[in-house]
Design a protein that fits this description.
The protein contains eleven helices and five strands, in the order ααααβαβααβαβααβα. The chain is of the alpha/beta class and about 250 residues long. The protein has two domains: about 60 residues, no CATH class; about 160 residues, 3-Layer(aba) Sandwich (Rossmann fold), CATH 3.40.50. A five-stranded parallel sheet has the order 2-3-4-1-5. Helix 2 runs antiparallel to helix 3. Belongs to the IS21/IS1162 putative ATP-binding protein family. This is ATP-binding protein.
Length: about 250
C-alpha cells in the first residue's frame, strides 16, 4: 500500500466511512474498466455509504424495540382466522395512525395471530424510521414496581412514554393488582395524543374492569383516552398453535 493509500485509509477510518473503506478498491477497478466519470464514481461510493448507514439505523431501531422475533404481514396466514378484516389490517400497515397519535387494539382469543400482527406492525414502524418499544403488559407492571422500589419510577415512565409506538402485548392474560392497574393507566393515559399504542388482548372492552383490579372508574377513564383515536381489530378463530392437535 502506498503512502497516499495509507493516508486515504486513515482519513476514511476517521470519518467512519465504512462502505468507502470496504468497496473503494473494487469500485476503482470497476471505474477503470467501464470508463466511469469522476462524478459517477463518487455517486456510487456515496450511495453505498448512505445505504449502509440506513441499514445500520434500522438494525439499531429493531434492537431497541426488543421484538420477540421477526414477523411480517406477508408471513401472516389469512386463511386461518375464522373472522378478520383483511382490508382494515392491511391499511393499518400504511402506519397513517402514527402521525395522528392513534392507537390500535387487536382483540381475539389465544393463538389467532394478534401478537404476530403486533410484531409485524412494530417492525414496519422500525423500517420507516420510528422509535418503537415492544413489551408485555405484565412486564410493564413488573418494571414499574421495581422502579418504584428503587426510586426510579419517573425514569421508567419516561422510557415507556418516549417511543413513537409502544406495543403492549397480552393485556388481560394475567391478573393485575392495584399498583399495576394504576401504573398501566399512567402509561396509557400519558401517551394520549403524544404517541401511538398498540395493544393485544383476549378480553372484550366490557371485561376490562376485571383486568384493572375491578376498578370501573379507572377503566372507564382509560378506555376514554385509549379509544378516542383508535381502531379495533377483532380476530376470531381457533388457536393456530393447536392446529395439529385439533385437526388430528
Amino acid at each position: 500500500m502506498s503512502i497516499t493509500e495509507q493516508v486515504l485509509v486513515q482519513q476514511l477510518e476517521r470519518l467512519q466511512l465504512r462502505y468507502f473503506l470496504q468497496h473503494y478498491p473494487d469500485l476503482v477497478a470497476q471505474a477503470a474498466r467501464e470508463s466511469w466519470t469522476h462524478g459517477h464514481f463518487l455517486e456510487q461510493l456515496v450511495a453505498g455509504e448512505a445505504a449502509r448507514r440506513d441499514e445500520a439505523r434500522v438494525a439499531r431501531r429493531v434492537k431497541a424495540a426488543h421484538l420477540p422475533g421477526l414477523k411480517t404481514l406477508d408471513g401472516f396466514d389469512w386463511s386461518w382466522p375464522k373472522k378478520i378484516n383483511r382490508t382494515q389490517v392491511q391499511h393499518l400497515f400504511r402506519l397513517e395512525f402514527l402521525p395522528q397519535q392513534g392507537n390500535v387494539i387487536l382483540l381475539g382469543g389465544v393463538g389467532v395471530g394478534k401478537t404476530h400482527l403486533a410484531i409485524a406492525l412494530a417492525h414496519t414502524a422500525c423500517l420507516q424510521g420510528h422509535a418503537v418499544l415492544f413489551t408485555r403488559a405484565v412486564d410493564i407492571v413488573t418494571a414499574l414496581a421495581a422502579a418504584q422500589a428503587t426510586g426510579g419510577l419517573k425514569r421508567e415512565l419516561a422510557r415507556l412514554l418516549k417511543p413513537t409506538l409502544l406495543v403492549i402485548d397480552e393485556l388481560g392474560y394475567l391478573p393485575i393488582d392495584k399498583f399495576g392497574a394504576d401504573g398501566l393507566f399512567q402509561v396509557i393515559s400519558q401517551r394520549y395524543e403524544r404517541g401511538s399504542t398498540v395493544i393485544t388482548t383476549n378480553r372484550a372492552f366490557k371485561q376490562w374492569p376485571e383486568i384493572f383490579n375491578n376498578d370501573s372508574t379507572l377503566t372507564s377513564a382509560l378506555l376514554d383516552r385509549l379509544l378516542h383515536h383508535a381502531e379495533s381489530v377483532v380476530i376470531e378463530g381457533r388457536s393456530y398453535r393447536m392446529r395439529d392437535q385439533t385437526d388430528a
